[in-house]
Amino acid sequence: MRASLIQIAVDEGESVESRRERVASLVREQAGVADLVVLPELWTTGAFAYEEFAAEAEPLDGPTHEAMAKAASDAGVWLHAGSIPERDPDGPLYNTSLVFSPSGERAAAYRKIHRFGFDKGEAVLMGAGRDLVTVRLPETTVGVATCYDLRFPELFRGLVDGGAETLVVSAGWPERRRAHWTLLAQARAVENQAFVLACGTAGTHAGVPQAGHSIVVDPWGEVLAEAGPGEEILTVEFDPAKVARTREQFPALKDRVLGLEPPRR
């Protein structure tokens, strides 16, 4: 199976409409190259462009959905289209990832559960999702996560319990914490004995330099491919069957002890 992670550079001088058209073209170029294409988090606005979220928010089936569905269909690929600021007519904004099948049908939507910012930014501007999301592809089952989710291992264990073998993380990760990005991607792969495909952004979001360095990690924690800091398409071939082999050869997941009580104070 081949995956292409498109590490988009967010240029504040490029309009959302222009970037949407450009990214759709990049997805179409993956026809015959990749089976699965992955885009970063909030690439339409920039993950740290908090002031733009409300102005650029769109309904789930809005212009980005329309453009990415057509691009997936034209390329004949599974497309994790990154995330958009979603405007729910009956609720708050959400940081929502979209996944499309090769026919252009929406296969899943995931509202980010862990919002970054503590008492500001995304944490106060957007609502929190509640549901874990997996998508069954012909070769593997994908578990969907977004950026800050990477710091919360229980989310990924939940995805694995739901059948995930390949964990796809769409992100807008800052350069100043790039070491954490690499470390956590490898940790999530090793502890869950799964592939991790983590796609970040390049450029600068509202004055925050982005880490880039999208990465693909195998179930043993080996880095199969890693991008540089700039805009880049990282394409890697991997064998989804390696997940089952790894879990059989080193069956650590069978030794999980659940329901432990916290220590008494």
CATH architecture: 4-Layer Sandwich
Q: Please report which band the strand proportion falls in: under 5%, 5-15%, 15-25%, 25-35%, 35-45% or over 45%.
A: 25-35%
Low-confidence stretches: none
Mass-distribution shape: globular
Q: Write out the CATH superfamily name.
A: Carbon-nitrogen hydrolase
The end-to-end span amounts to 50 Å
CATH class (first level) name: Alpha Beta
Number of domains: 1
Biggest pleated sheet: 6 strands, mixed
Strand order of the largest sheet: 6-5-4-3-1-15
| Number of extended strands | 15
The third-level CATH topology is: Nitrilase/N-carbamoyl-D-aminoacid amidohydrolase
Instruction: Using the CA coordinates, give the radius of gyration.
Output: 17 Å
Overall pLDDT level: 97
Structural class: alpha/beta
Organism: Streptomyces bobili
GO molecular function: hydrolase activity
Family: Belongs to the carbon-nitrogen hydrolase superfamily. NIT1/NIT2 family.
Keywords: Hydrolase
Characterise the protein shown here.
Helix 1 runs parallel beside helix 3 (63-75). The relative contact order is 0.16. The chain has one domain (2-251): Nitrilase/N-carbamoyl-D-aminoacid amidohydrolase (4-Layer Sandwich). The longest helix is centred in the last third of the chain and has 15 residues, at 178-192. The protein contains 7 helices and 15 strands. 26% of the residues lie in helices and 28% in strands. The strands form 3 sheets. A 6-stranded mixed β-sheet has the order 6-5-4-3-1-15. The protein has a 6-stranded mixed β-sheet with strand order 7-8-9-10-13-14, covered by helices on one side. Strands 2-11-12 form a 3-stranded mixed β-sheet, with no helix packed on it. With 265 residues, it is an alpha/beta fold. It has helices at 16-28, 50-56, 63-75, 122-125, 153-161, 178-192, 241-249, and strands spanning 2-7, 9-10, 36-38, 78-87, 93-100, 106-111, 134-136, 141-146, 166-170, 195-199, 202-205, 208-209, 215-217, 223-226, 232-237.
